[in-house]
Structure formats: C-alpha cells, structure tokens
Amino acid sequence: MKEIIKLALRNLKEHKSKTIIISMFILFGVAIVIMGNSFLESINRGLEKDFRANVTGDIAISTIPEKGTIIDVFGVNSTNFTGEIPQIPAINELEKVENILKETKGVKKTSKLISAQVILAKGTEIDLSAFMDNDDLTLMDIPISMLFAGEDGTFWDMFPDLKLVEGTFPAKGSNEIIVDTRVMAGFEKTYKETLKVGDTVLLESMGGVIREGKVVGIFKPANEYSAMFQSIYCEPVLARSFAELTYASSFDQVLPDSVDLSIADMSEDELFADDDLFGAIEEDTSVLGSSEDFDNILGDTSLRDELNKTDDGAWQFCLAKLDNPYLDKKLVRELNKRFAEEGLNVRAMDWKLAAYSYSGTVEGIGFIFNLLIIILAIVVFIIIMNTMVVSVIERTSEIGTMRAIGAEKKFVKRLFYSEAVILTSISSLAGIILAFICMAIFNACNIVITNEFAKMILGGGLLHFSPTASIIITTIVIAIAGSVISNMYPVKSALRITPLKALSKE
Predict the structure, then answer these.
(1) 35-92, pLDDT tens digit by residue?
(2) CA 100 → CA 63, 280, 373, 464, distances in Å?
(3) Residue range 394-419: mean pLDDT, rounded
(4) Least confident piece of the model among 96-110, 174-188, 331-345, 439-453
(5) Beta-strand runs (E) in 9-129
C-alpha cells in the first residue's frame, strides 16, 4: 500500500495542471458547503434557543389540526381558502391532557398558553388605510404583534428570561399589557408618536375584535437579534377575547321543533311567485314557527351575552419543560401514542413544529441551499470525471508500461482511486481551513441584519456561523465519495488499456 501511495503522490505532482484544477473545485466546494451549513446551523440554534426559552418550551401540545392546516403558536396556517381568518382552537378534555403530562417521566415543568395576532394603535379606531398611503412603510412595518398570555403562577416560572426594563407585570384579571422594545420602535415609526408606560392603546385582532389595553411595562427580548415577531404579554382574560375563546365557540344552538328552515331551500321562483307569500308564511307556523318561538330566540339577549363571555377554562396550548431537552423527540412520540390510546384530539410537538412559521422558513431555505449544492456537486463531478478521462488518455503509455511489467488490473485500480482520495482529502482539508478563516472573520465583524423581512427569513438579525463536527465530517465523506464515484468511469477506461494498445498509441 505504501508503494501505491508514493506512486499516487508522484503522479499528482507530475500532472500539476490537472491536480490544481480538480483541487480548486473541491477546495471551494467544500468551503461553500461548510459555510452554508454552518450558517443554517447557527439559524437553527438561535431559533431553538429563542423558542425553547421564551414561548414553546421543549414540548407544546395543541388540538390536532384539520386537513390542509398547520397549527403553531403563531396561528393557523391554512391552504383552505374560505375567506375567514382561522383561529387556534381550544384544547378539549384539558384535564386529561394535563394528567398525562404529570404522569410522563422526564417532564419537569408545565404551563398553558394563549396566543393571537393583534394590531396596536392609539385613538378611537384603527385605520389600516394609513399604512397603505405611506410610501415609507413596508408590510413589515405594520405594527402587527403576537399577543401571548400564560397561566398564572406557572408561565413565568417556566420562562424566567423575560426581564422588564420599565414598569410592572400585568395585574391579574386586568386589561394591562407589557410590550417589547421592538413594538415601541415599530409604533413610533408607523404613527410618528412614542409609546410609553401609562398609555392606553387599542388592540384589534385579525378577526375584528377590539379592546382597550393599558401599557404597564416594557421588556427587552432576551436575544436582541431574535427573529421572533414583536411581542405583547397580557392576562389570559384579555387574550381569550382576541383568540375568540368564548362559550359561543363551542356552543350549538338547538332550535325548537316547530321551527322549519325549509324556506332556505326554496328557489327564487318559489319565493316570489306568490304575491302574498310572506302573508301566507305568517299564517303557517309550520314554515317558520310561531312568533313566540322567535321572540324567545331573538328577543332575549341573555343567551347571547353569556355566549360572548370568555371561557375562563379555555387554553390553546399546554407547554412542557423537560429534565433533558434532548429527549424531546422521544417524549413527543410517547405522548402522541398515549393521546391516541386515550382517544384525545391533541398532538404533541417539539419546538420546531410548535414554531413552524419560523422553522419552516429556515427549513425551506436549507432545502433550496442543499438543492443548489447538489446541482453544483453534479457539475463538479462531471468536470472531475472529464478531466480524469483526459488524464487517462494522456497516460495511456504509462498504464500500458505498468501492465507490461506485470501490474495487475487491481493495482491500476487502486492507484487511480488512491490518487482521487489523496487529492480530495488534501483539498478538503484546505477547504475546511479556508471556511474557518472566512467564518472567523464574519463572526468577529458582528454583521447585523437590519431588514425585518430578511431577519424573519434568516432566523435572526446577526450574520453568524456555527460549524459542527457533524457538518465537517459529513462534507468530507460526501466529497471523498463523490470523487471516487466521478473516477469510476475513467478507471474503467484505464483498465481497458493493454500493453498492445499502449504500443499502438506510440
């Protein structure tokens, strides 16, 4: 084997031009792959840290989404275009879910969460046309914020990283809110006025629910480069209004038996053919029921008032912190199995699925990046293969001579593959060194991404690289494997060369 390695090194040295061309392709390819995946790893780490520490915990539990929808802590992403803005449903049989969590080994802390999207404004109404008429504002500047409310007594114990820089936390059962510094900055940019502690503001949900809220505190995000939506925290009683967690949301009104809704099925001709249709309907109680029925249904507002009250026991999510966060996927499987056995319409999610609005975007970017890398790799392999084919042609006499003095096909095969592995290994090592130098420079510069849309897409506001051993090892293995594969056809061509062919070429 030593002799083969010596001979391979000699051959690489003798064919400098081809060695340099191939090594450059491998070097820069390896550097790009390592830097790209290290950047994506940095994004994932940042997102994971943010969401585990601030919103989702290690595991989040929600209602099983309907077909065509995805539920995460930021809302319902739906492909069912109904014209309505879907709301996150409340968890049914909440007590059973909580008991299962308590019985699950490895669960350290639990809490509950409500979330909704709101628009913030001052004054008597929220006028969205003001945003459209302002050319200086973009879609990302519209002061849409995530409104969160956690369970009293457990939520802040689970998420202690949030620190107030001014004011106090909302009082229990109040309409008080605390806002992050990004909400204040966006508010000032949009409305040209400051937002401060003591201000009364209007909050409007995507569904049109409007409530007053009093700003009693300001907090700074634990990660100033976080990609998370600007956030507002409040008490559950206020959040339930925006999340539409009212008694009406789970109520089915049963009409009296005397009420016949067959009029809804009548055609236009049937409705308007008779001049005295509605007079006849009034006389015929079999069609719409008696006037007493409708007085009971429409005249009494007490039922409506009760149904519009928020359901104090309704929660959209159950959250859990684990003794060992790295066992989250294992516990997710265990919990989902238990939920299915109990017939519960809920599912457990890890932080990534619970924050899919962000993690899904990063995964999409990762998919596109890796797809481009695959295309690039194919092109590089084709170039390497063509270069090696030319090299085989040029080395016909050399190969023929080796065969003439007794070299077996196995020896020739080992020689060519040794050249490929040695060249790829050395080039990959150089690519790793180049990647680390570039990443160290970028990390030292602390390049901040200021564009809000770019921050959301890239998972944060800091251009940072986090290389891992798995990224480096995987890249080297793929590079060597690719190099060997790209040499398979040239090696086959080399093995076809006989001493007679070599002499005839001469």
Answers:
(1) 988 988 887 887 888 888 888 999 999 999 888 788 998 888 765 555 566 788 899 8
(2) 15, 59, 44, 40
(3) 74
(4) 439-453
(5) 59-63, 69-72, 75-78, 107-121
Last residue of a domain, one of 294, 326, 354: 354
Q: Which positions ≥6 away from 470 have C-beta within 8 Å?
A: none
| CA 355 – CA 349 distance, rounded (Å) | 9
* Domain extent at residue 286: 267-309
Q: How far apart are CA 474 and CA 465, in angstroms?
A: 17
Same structural domain, 214 and 330: yes
462 and 343 housed in the same domain: no
Does 77 lie in the same domain as 175? yes
Write out the two tokens for 36.
Answer: 């790209």
Looking at the fold, whether 279 and 343 belong to one and the same domain comes out as no
Please check whether residue 208 lies inside any domain of the structure: yes
Domain count, the chain: 3
At 307, the amino acid letter reads L
pLDDT digits (tens, 9 = 90+) for 203-257: 988 777 889 999 999 988 766 666 667 889 999 999 998 888 865 554 444 444 5
HSE of 41, CA atoms in CB hemisphere, 13 A: 15
Check residue 498 and give its pLDDT.
66
Domain identity same for 67 and 170: yes
The residue among 399, 406, 410 whose CA lies nearest residue 506 is 399
Other beta carbons less than 10 A from residue 58's beta carbon: 27
Which residue carries 């009250």 as its tokens? 309
- pTM of structure: 0.71
Do 417 and 497 belong to one domain?
Answer: yes
Query: For residues 88 and 489, what is the distance between their CA atoms, to the nearest angstrom?
Result: 57
- The candidate with the shortest Cα–Cα distance to 297, out of 271, 261, 264, 262, is 261
Residue 178 lies in a domain: yes
Name the 3-class secondary structure at 121.
Answer: strand
Question: Residue 255 domain-assigned?
Answer: no
Residue 6 and residue 272: Cα distance in Å, rounded? 100
Domain shared by 297 and 404, yes or no: no
Please identify, among 322, 354, 386, the residue that sits at the C-terminal boundary of a domain. Answer: 354
Give the chain's radius of gyration (CA, Å): 33
In this structure, how many other beta carbons lie within 10 angstroms of the beta carbon of residue 317?
A: 26
d(CA 59, CA 390): 57
| Domain membership flag for residue 338 | yes
- Residue 148 near residue 231 (C-beta atoms within 8 A): yes
Contact 144, 117 (CB under 8 A): yes
Q: In the beta sheet, which residues pair with residue 147?
A: 116, 232
Same domain for 114 and 46, yes or no, is no
Do residues 385 and 23 touch, judged by C-beta distance below 8 A? no
Q: Is residue 405 a contact partner of residue 7, using CB atoms and an 8 Å limit?
A: no
